[in-house]
Amino acid sequence: MLGVVNLDKPVGPTSHDMVGFLRRLTGTRRIGHAGTLDPLASGVLPILVGSATRFSEELTGGRKRYEAVFRLGERSATDDAEGPLERVDAPMPSEAAIRDALAAFVGTFEQRPPVFSARKHEGRVAHRAARAGAPIEVPPRTVSVDAIDVLAVEPAADRVDVRVDLRCGPGTYVRSIARDLGERLGTGGHLHALRRTEASGLAVADAVTPDQLSALAADGRLSDAILPVGSLLPLPRVVLDADASWRFVHGSAQRHDGPEGRVAAFAADGSLVGVGRIEASMLRPEKVVSQEPSR
Question: pTM for the complete prediction?
């Protein structure tokens, strides 16, 4: 098996839990994912099957889209609903003030990761250090947000829920945006709910649930849910004849005229043979699939 499953991860399981689920379902050990989703988040989780795991870097690095609920009026130690939560006694802002504050998070800026995150600093994992009672300050990193569209503002007596459609680049913590929005408004804030609607060229409208995958497996049709990884790689395509494909998968550089940079290489039958780089009219393999085309 080789390809990508567009999994609609439910709230509750970890991304690692979903990898284990697919291992049991497929009987294949070589399973990974492209982009972690926290247990409290749902939506698109690309599951990589077989040699597709070699292309995790390419699939993880694209733009992403989320529907999120930012709750104002409460702080969270984890910056999300996992908590613990602390009520903030402050007047709730108007919708206009919320929209103005959100505009500051569109563009490219330095973002402070959550204290409870998988980021490492000086050899220590942030969430492990925080749970041990010795939180570490992870340095900020540059992130980019393309747009934050307000879908609804839902006020209550002591809080406001802000539902947004957010498009961003890789490495962006939506939790941090919720936290920093609350700080900017003086109300406190955290991420109350999150659903990833697009990632790695996949849309949640086309995703399959774990129950649907189980049903396909029971019918012997699990392969119906496995998409070709080559169609998702965000790279220019080059097509190689049988001899060039054979040389490529065996690691040989070869002459190939074309724009310089990284490319996805395909055999004449449309099957992916790997990812390479063209420099000075030479194509050099960087990653190859384990299934070799015939010469």
Answer: 0.90
